[in-house]
Input
Amino acid sequence: MRFHIAADAAATAEMAADSVEGVIRSNPRASIGLATGATMVGVYRSLVRRCREGPLSFAETTVYLLDEYIGLDADHPQTYRNVITRSFTELVDLRDDAVFAPDCQAPGLDIEARRYDRLVRAADIDIQLLGIGRNGHIAFNEPGTPFDAETTVVSLSEATRRDNARFFDSAEEVPLQAITQGIGTILQAKQILLVAQGSHKSRPIRDALEGPVTTEVPASALQLHGDVSAVFDLEAASRLSTGHPQV
Ligand code: GLP
Output
């Protein structure tokens, strides 16, 4: 695992965007795994800017979301599909048919989860952007999830629902369930880029990257992957053992 520790959130976003840009420049037809959440806002802003200023182009790229809430109307502003559309995909030159997400309006959600799992595995993701939850979750894989889990319907923990309530008008409105890529699916990506900012991420980051590999900390599964880059600001990195390069 390669650690990159930057001075602040803005610098982590630029470093993460550098990595994504590097993958696309070496292969314009790359498939990119996208995460949602506050962590990624700056990363997408930077990529949008680079695309508008040129020469970065997503015209031949395909993108795949990690997860999607169940139970929201298709036009609800907080579906991850709508979040990623607003913050990234409609602002760059991606083709409309090159953006994939679990379809939580589908009649059979278990069947949809399996369909999406096959789609993502076949896509052979070149780089997967990943955030981390305060409880160590990745995508919506909560503590206790097996590391070989496939894409499936999951229940959100109370902790995650509380954390994500900031995006909704009320805590009750936060969905109870989601379809999420499984940890096993995520680990299939050729390269994983973990991004975290803020002191509230320092404990899960330390537990995930320097603690034991355990299903109680879903992100600790990343220790089993051969090509992970981690980009943190000083606060998120503050509990890591010293000696990681600061850039
Ligand atoms: C959600 C998403 C995760 C994300 C996490 C952290 O639960 N399903 O993919 O990593 O939130 O989000 P934030 O970046 O807002 O802290």
About this structure: The beta strands are 2-6, 31-34, 62-65, 67-70, 99-100, 127-130, 152-155, 177-180, 192-196, 228-233. The radius of gyration is 17 Å. The longest strand covers residues 228-233.
